[in-house]
Amino acid sequence: MSQLEASNKYAQALKAGQKTYRECVLKGRYPYLQILDEILSDSMVAGQVDLGVIDIPADQIVGTKTVGRRTAFAADFMPLLAPDTEFASKWVNLCAAHLSEEGIRDPIRCYEYMGRFYVQEGNKRVSVLKSFDAPSIPGYVTRVIPAYSEDTAVRIYYEFLSFYRLSGIYQVYFSRLGGFVKLQAALGFDPDHVWTEEERRRFLAGFYYFKEAFIKLGGRDLHLTPADALLVWLQVYPIESVRKLPLTDIGKNLAAMWSDVKAAAQAEPIAVSTAPEVSHPKSLISRLFGSVLLPNHLDVAFINRPDPVHSNWITAHDLGRQAMEQALSREVTVRSYNLKPGDDVDAAMEQAVADGAQVLFATTAPLISSCRKLAVRHPEVHILNCSVAMPYPGVRTYYSRIYEGKFITGAIAGAMARGDRIGYIASNPIFGVPASINAFALGARLTNPRAKILLSWSCVSEDPIGDLLRQGVDIISNRDIPTPDQPQGNWGLSQVGPAGDLIPLASPYWDWGNFYVRLVSTILHGDWDALNYKDSGKAVNYWWGMSSGVVGLHLTDNLPDGVRHLANILCHGIIDNTIYPFHRQIRSQDGTVRNDGNQWFSPEEVLHMDWLCDCVEGGIPDFDQLLPMSRSIVRLQGVYRDQIPPEKEGSAK
Predict the structure, then answer these.
(1) pLDDT tens per residue across span 156-184
(2) pTM (2 d.p.)
(3) C-alpha 143: how far from its chain's center?
C-alpha cells in the first residue's frame, strides 16, 4: 500500500471517528476511550495475573490504561486528530506497514479487567487494525482480577474465570449468571472438560458466523451478548448447524426465532393472561373486512405423549378435545396424534402440519422443545404447549390456576379437621405448586387460625399418604382429580376414617374442554393477538382459573351442609373476583412479611412463588432429593430450574 493510499485510509478512519464522536455526544455517552486508571481503585483489585501473548478479540478492546492520548481517539478507537499532525503521520506509516510484506508484527501490551481490554502500548496499532475490521489483535495481557463481591457483574466474571481455565476463550461472554456452565453442557462437555485446540478452533469458527448474523439482525440494540443469543439458538439447533450452515441460512434461521432472542433480553419475558379475552365491538368497516379475512374453519391437531389410555393427565386433555370438537363441530376438524414413549415427536408434528393443522396443542410440558423447533419452521401455525413460565414467544403455553380450588379445600380442611394438623401432598416443586400449597394453608387458617400444614411430596416419597398417616393427621389433601367426572378415590381432600381408610370430601378438578373451546374461538374471532402480546415481544402464558371454567370444584355428599354452604360462598367469591386468597397478612417460613394485608400480588408473583407460609411444616425439596421420574419436569419448570446444574447435551440423566 502506498503512502497516498494509507493517507486516504486515515481520512476514512478520521471521518468514522468524527461520526462516532457526534453520535456519542447526541446520545449522552462518553465520546472518548475509557481509561482503566479512572475506573479502578486499590480496593477493587484482588490481584494480577500475566497471561502472556494471546489473540485479543478486537471488539473487546475498549480503552487505554492511562489518560494519555485521551482525546486522540473516539470511543471506537477511530482517530480524531487532524491529518497534518504527527499522530496522523505515525498512523499512516503503520497503516502502510500493515498491508505490506512487513506487516504489524509487534504485539500490543494491555490490561484486561472484567472481560474488557485497555491498551498500555500500541493504541495506534489497535486503531489501524480496527479500521480494517481485524477480528483479533495479538497482545501481551495482564489480567486484573476484581475483588469478589455479590455484585452480579463480578459474579459473572468469576464464572468466566472458571470457563477460561477450561476453554482458553475470551470471545464468549454472558450478561447473566450461569451462562458459561450452560454453554459447556450445551456443547456436550462435562463440567470439568478442558477444551482441545481443535474444539476451540471449531467452536470459534462457528461462533464468528453466528455473531455476524446476530449483529446484522440488530443484536447490538438488545440487552444481550452474542453468547446469550447462542444459548437460545442451542435450545433449538445443535452447535454443528452453526459450523455447517452458510451464513445466509444462519441468518434466516436466527431471524425465524428472533422473537425468542428478544424475549430473552427482557427482564419479564412472559405476559400472563388470567382470563379469556373479551372481544370489543368493531366498527362496521372492521366487521365487513374481518368477515373476509377471519378463518371460518380451523384444522386443529393434538399431540399426545403418551397415549391417553396410559395417562390420566392425557385422558383429561383428550376429554377436553372431545368437548371442543362437539361444541365447535362446524368450525373445526380435529386430529389426534397419540405417541408411544419412543416415537419421533418432531416427525409427528411435521406430519400434523402436512395434514393441514393450523392450530397445534401439545399436551405435556416435555414436548416444548419440539414445539419450538416447529415454530421456527412453521411460523404460520398457532402452537401451544401445556406448561407454564416458558419464555418463548413462538410457542404459547397454557395451564390453570388450580390454587383457587386449593384455597377452598383448605377452608374445608380447617373446618373438618378434629385437630390442628392437616396433611398436604404436593406433586413437584414446579411453578404454581407453592402457590397451591400456600393457598390451601391460608384457606385452612380462614376456618382454623391454629391450623398447621404438614407437607409431604410425592416426588420424594413413594408412599406420601402413609407418611402422613403415621404422623396422626385426620385430614389429607392429595393431588387433584384430573377430570370433572372421575371418581375421587384417594385424590383431592379426604378425611381419615376409623380404620385408616380415606373418606372423600372435595377436590378441585381440571376442565380442559372449557379452555380449548374458548381458545380456539379466540382464533376464529380474530383475537389471537389481543392486548398487543405480539408487539410486546413477550411470550404468552394462558393461566386461567375458576371464572373461565377451566378449574372447578367437586363436593361430595360426605360434607356437612354448613361446610358445603361455606365452600359454595367461597367458590362464588373467587369466580366473581370478590375473594382473593392472597390478599391478607402473610408471613413466610423465614419470618419475612410477604403481605401486610394491603398488597395485591400480580399473577406473575403468584405463579413464581418459591416460598411457603409460616404455618406450613416442611420445605421445598432440593433437586437431589427428587425421585428420578420427577427430575425432567423439574428441570423444565422447577421453581429453581435456573440453579440446577445443566445436563450435557445428549445426557439421559
Answers:
(1) 999 999 999 999 999 999 999 999 999 99
(2) 0.85
(3) 33
